Amino acid sequence: MIRHMFFLLLLIHSTLAQKSTGKPSKTWLTLNGAEPAVIARGGYSGLFPDSSQFAFQFAVSTSLSNVIVFCDLQLTKDGQGICQTGLALENSTTIALAFPKGQKTYNVNGKDVRGWFALDYTSKQMFDNVFLSQNIFSRPSLFDGTLPISAVEDAASLKSAPKFWLNVQYDTFYTQHKLNAALYVERALKSIGINYISSPEIGFLKTLSGKVNKIRTKLIFRILEEDAIEPTSNQTYGSIIENLSTIKSFASGVLVPKEYIWPVNKDLYLEAATSLVADAHKQGLEVYASGFANDFPASYNYSYDPTTEYLQFIDNSQFSVDGVLTDFPSTASESIACLAQNKNVTKPIKGKALVISHNGASGVYSGCTDLAYQQAIDDGADIIDCSVQMSKDGVAFCMDSADLTGDTTAITTFMPRSTKIPEIQKESGIFSFDLTWSEIQTLKPQLSSPFPDGGMPRNPANKNKGSFMTLSAFLELAKTKAATGILINIENAAYLASKKGLGITDTVATALSNATFDKQSTQKVLIQSDDTSVLSKFKNVTTYQRVLSIKEIISDAPTQSVEEIKKYADAITVPRASIITTSGSFTTAFTSVVNKTHNANISVYVSVLRNEFIALAFDFFADPMVELATYVAQVGVDGVVTDYPATASAYIRSPCSNLNANLPYTILPVEPGSLLSLGLRDVQPPAAAPAPALNVADVVDPPLPAVISNVSTSTPAAAPAGKPRSNSPKNVANMALSLVAIMLISLLSM
C-alpha cells in the first residue's frame, strides 16, 4: 500500500515538475557552456534514507529532467555492489540490530574505524536482513527500518533517470581485503550505463583510464579535505589540487568540497572566491562542487536561503561550476531553472501576492531599524511595516513589541524599570511607555534569534547595527524610497489610553496625515490591529486597507465570524498554522480559512515566514521556496509576511511562481499529508488536537476607552496604575527576569 501511494506521489510530482523538455535559453559560464548538472547524492537523501529506492525515485521526479543519480559504492563479502555512503553502516542501516555481534575494527587509510561493514556479509544477508535508516538525526525518521538496501544495478536502472554517477571511495581498503573494486566496475560497465566514475584515489582512476569509453564515461578525481593524504601519491589533496595539469592526465574533472571554491571563515562569512574553477576550466577540467544540503547552514551571507548558496556557485559574473552534489536536488534544480539569471526582473507577475516585511528585513538586521527597512526595500519588499510603540513622553516609534528586552539592550541598563503587565504579556518586561524617547535612544538594537534557546543565530556581524526610527522618520523613508506601500500595526491601544494617557490611534492618524498618506492613493496604506475598535478609527479614510490581525491559531472561519470581520476589515493576517495544519513537523491538511474569507472578498496575509529550516515542516524539503509556492501558488494568499523579503521577492518575481506557465521545470507546492501518509501508521506522530474555529466573540472588541490625563511623565511606575500588587509577586517576577538578565549580560560582554 505504501509503495502504491509513493508512486502516486511520484506521478503527481513528475507530471507537474517537468512539463516539457524545452531548450535552455540561458547561457552559462561552465566549461562547455552547458547548464550546471544537479547530482543527487544518494537520491533525495535530505528527506528519505540515503540510497533508498524512495530517495532515488523522488530525486528523479522532483528535479530537472537531466538529474544525475549518485551512488557511493560499497562491496559485500561476495563482491556485490550496493549503494551506501560511509563504510561503517550502523548509523545509516539496521545492521547492528540484525547482527548484534558483528562490530569490528578496521584500519582505513591509516585510521582505525569501528563499526559494521558490508564486506563482512554476503549480499543475501544484506538484502534479506538489513534495512535503511536516516543517518542525520534532524531529518525525518519516519521511514527508518522499512526500506531495503539498494544494489548498484537498481540505482543505475531507474526509470526516467538519464545519468548515473558511481563513486568509489575506498578502493585501497577493499583491495587489502581481497575485493576488487576496479574489476567490479569493469563488469558493471558491460551491463549498466555509468556516465561518471569518481574516486579520491589516483591509482584507481589510472587503472580504469584505459578500460572505459571516455566519450560515454567520465573519470572524476574526488578531492578530499586539504590536509587529508591521498593513498597512491602519499601527498595531501591540498597540494595535489595545485597541479591541475597532472590531474588532467588521468581525469576529465574534479569533485571538490565547496569550500575550495568559496572559502568560509571561522565566523561563517564568505571570503573571496578562489581561482580554482577558472584555472581548472583553462586546463579543460570540469569542476563539480560537493557538500550542499539545505539543513546544513553554510554562511550567514546566505540568510539561511539555500537557493542563494547555489546561485553563488552558478550565477556569478566570474564562473559557474559544472555541477553540484546535493542532498536536496529539487532546490538545486529550482536555483538553476527558476532563479539564476533572474536578477534584472524588477516587477512581480501581475496579481501575485504582496511581499510584506516583518520589522523590515529582520533576518538580516535588527528589526525596525533604519538598516532593516532599507534592506527590505532593496530586497524587493512591496510593503514595509512599522509596529508602532509609544515612549513615556508620547513619541511614536517602530518596534516589534512594547517590551524592549528582546530587540534592544534595555536589559543591561533599565532592569529597575522591569514590571509585569498581564494585559500585555505574561512575562515581566521593560516597556517602552515607561521610558522616555531620549532614554530609548541610549539603547542599541539587538538582532536575536526567534527560536528557542537562541538556535540558528542571525547575522552576528549586524547584531547591534542600525538606529531606531520614529514613526515620522519611517513614513518619510517610505515616501523618499517610493516603497509600494506601508503597513502600520497598532496594539495595546486600550491599555495605553486608560493606563498611560497615550492616544496611539490619534498619534498614528496625525502622523499619516502630516505625511499626506491620507491624501494620496499611489502608495498602499495598510492599518493593522488585533483590535476592531482601532480599525474603526480609520474607516473614514477609504484608501486605507484595514487588516485584522488574528494571532490565535484557528482551524475554521465560520460564515458568521467572517461577516463580522467584514464590518471592520478588508483583510486578515493569520499564522501559518491557521492555513496548513501540522503534526510532528509534517503537514497534515489545508484548513478552509482562506477559501471562506476569500468568498467574502476579504484578503488573507500569512505570517510569519522564515528561511531557517527548523521553521519548516519536513514536506517543504528545508526549502523556503517550497513553502512560498504552497502558500502563494497553491493556497492563493494575498500576501506573505516575512523576516526575509529577498527570498519571497525572488520567488514571486521568478517565472516558476506561475504554475500555469509552460516551463521545463517549476517549483511545486506540497500536498499536505502526502508525505506523512507514506510512513507506517504505527510510527506516525499522534494527530494534534484541532485548533478552535474563529468565534464572533473573538472578532469584536469593546470601544476604546478615553485617553486619561494627568499621568506623571517624570517617574516610572513599577506596576500599572490602578493595579496595586504585593511585593512578593513583583519580586518573584523581577527575580525571574534578573536571572535572564544575568545570562544575557554575560553573553553581551563576551
Automatic annotation (TrEMBL):
Which Gene3D superfamilies does the entry link to? Answer: Phosphatidylinositol (PI) phosphodiesterase (3.20.20.190)
PANTHER family, alphabetized? GLYCEROPHOSPHODIESTER PHOSPHODIESTERASE GDPDL6-RELATED (PTHR43620:SF44), GLYCEROPHOSPHORYL DIESTER PHOSPHODIESTERASE (PTHR43620)
Q: Where is the GP-PDE domain?
A: 36-336, 353-652
Give the residue range of the signal peptide: 1-17
Q: What terms describe the molecular function in GO for this protein? A: glycerophosphodiester phosphodiesterase activity
Keywords in alphabetical order: Glycerol metabolism, Glycoprotein, Hydrolase, Signal
EC numbers for this chain: 3.1.4.46
- The superkingdom listed in its UniProt entry is Eukaryota
InterPro entries assigned: GP_PDE_dom, PLC-like_Pdiesterase_TIM-brl
Identify the Pfam families for this entry.
GDPD (PF03009)
Give the GO biological process terms.
glycerol metabolic process; lipid metabolic process
Give the catalytic activity: a sn-glycero-3-phosphodiester + H2O = an alcohol + sn-glycerol 3-phosphate + H(+)
The name this protein goes by in its record: glycerophosphodiester phosphodiesterase
SUPFAM superfamilies xrefs: PLC-like phosphodiesterases (SSF51695)
For the protein in the UniProt heading, the enzyme class is hydrolase
